[in-house]
Design brief:
Blueprint lengths: L5 E2 L9 H8 L8 H17 L5 E6 L2 H12 L5 E6 L2 H12 L3 E6 L8 H10 L5 E5 L1 E2 L4 E2 L2 H9 L4 E5 L18 E5 L10 E6 L1 H9 L9 H8 L12 H17 L1 H21 L15 E5 L6 H12 L1 E2 L1 E2 L8 E5 L6 H17 L8 H15 L1
Helix pairs in contact: 1-9, 2-9, 5-6, 9-10, 10-13, 11-12, 12-13
The protein binds pyridoxal-5'-phosphate (PLP).
Pyridoxal-5'-phosphate binds next to α3.
Length: 386
Amino acid sequence: MIRKEYLMTPGPTPIPHQVSLAQAEPMIHHRTPAYTELFVRMVEGLKKVLYTSNDVLTFAASGTGAMEGAVANCFSPGDRVLVAAGGKFGQRFAEIAKVYKLDVELYEYPWDEAADPEVIARLLREKPDIKGVFLTHSETSTGVVNDVKAVGEAVRETPAILVVDSISGAGALELRTDDWGIDVLVTGSQKALMTPPGLAAAAVSAKAWELIEAADSPAYYFCFKKARKKYNSDSPETPYTPAIGLVKAMSEAVELLLAEGMEAAWERHRTLALCTREAVSAMGLELFPKVLERAYAVTAVKAPEGIGGGDIVRHMNRVHGVIIAGGQDRLKGKIFRIGHVGYYDFFDMAVALSALEMTLKELGFDLELGSGLAAAEKTYLEMARK
Ligand SMILES: *Cc1c(COP(=O)(O)O)cnc(C)c1O
């Protein structure tokens, strides 16, 4: 029997066939002009995707590698940093900072809300020795998206640097690294960048380089200074063997994104999010985030009374071949998450929503089949007409 699978998780995400094919090409050596050309094309393209002219460094690692790199390179043990955490990935920054023995000032905000830029501004005023502010752009575990621009305005005037995890944001959501004053922007390949997992990137500002020059936490593989020096040499390369196949893949994916245009890509994600949102509401379900502004990467939905979020995820996977994500940590069983970051169009969402309706019906939830799909189609036509 033929069984198709539909990957609708917020990472990893589906790979365009051009990107898969690029990865399947014959292996090349990384100390050759052919590789250098490929690598520079990818990095320079990535700068356009991220709206930055800062140095962009890449590492063979999942996104967390670049998060750890940011902590290790910019700070010294004992440095005071402010971590805004409203979900699993915000917490990760705090965990990494503690491993590197930083003095972590934790600003925890409710998981269904966004960080308040004014609170961050106040904490920076109260504790002027804070050297860095850590913020998650798109908090994938909750669906909430932070107002990075407003936080950037609060941090810009202080000596602190702003470190932003946009691993599930970059490529999907409006992101203007330089204009918004982001000093270290970290991202990863397997979300909106439509590439298999395993490549991480960090865009580093002049303000961050000043801290990096003075910092003395240990870093070897993730050493930013070494990576910058190699990239800025006569033949730009990485200090160690790069993930050549992934660089080929990401180079292709970046070209696809730039051909679409970043603003068009952001608008596509917004459209898919609004269609999904309208659909689940029409099915009689409730969205998890209270703050829905900018929340266009992941749709997090509360599991209905009496049905576990995990049951919905498992049933959709086993019976219908549609893979979505459950809740993590304190949200386990309470929510499920539909991803639309990356290589998605409306008809992918129609598949997911159809499977969700049938799943809910089969699990005993009272709904009219087609009600969600109809709402999504209506929203899509309205938005397409504008
Ligand atoms: C996916 C993701 C990460 C990184 O996870 P990895 O498994 O290391 O790729 C970090 N932050 C956010 C917001 C993410 O969505």
